[in-house]
Specification:
alpha+beta; five-stranded antiparallel beta sheet; three-stranded mixed beta sheet; 8 strands
Length: 137
């Protein structure tokens, strides 16, 4: 199956650099919605950008080595931005990560820091981590 990556964050001109980070082995998984449970271990992955355009570019092929569930829960109150980041809860396979674990997840998902990760996932989210390495949380 195809994993499509944008070259910039939607609504901004800020580059994601995901393609380069995947090629260098820095982005070792991706987080996606998977409401229909389509992703399975052993599936072929086509890492690509320009999907559904004449600029389609499959820049790397991998195999799905595993799937984990992820939930991101944001606080409902209007706290200061700094306190909000530290109040966000992230669960992988229903186990809550601490701050160090969230930072590790963010870096492994191709973000420069935890703040960039939490800015990207800026609302409650439930999905899957699609792995192409042996790393698990």
């Amino acid at each position: 199956m195809i994993l499509s990556y944008r070259k910039t964050k939607e609504g901004t001109s800020k580059p994601t650099n995901f393609e380069d980070k995947i090629k260098r082995g820095e982005k070792i998984h991706t987080i996606r919605l998977d409401n229909k449970n389509r992703w399975k271990k052993g599936m072929k992955i086509q890492q690509a950008n320009g999907v559904r355009t004449k600029y389609y570019n499959c820049f790397q092929e991998d195999v799905c080595t595993g799937i984990q569930t992820i939930k991101i829960k944001h606080p409902k109150s209007s706290m200061s931005l700094l306190n909000t980041y530290y109040s966000i809860k992230v669960y992988i396979d229903d186990v809550q990560l601490g701050t160090i674990g969230i930072r590790e997840l963010a870096i492994n998902d191709g973000f420069n820091c935890m703040k960039d990760f939490l800015d990207w996932f800026n609302e409650d989210f439930e999905g899957k981590i699609i792995h192409w390495t042996d790393k698990r949380y």
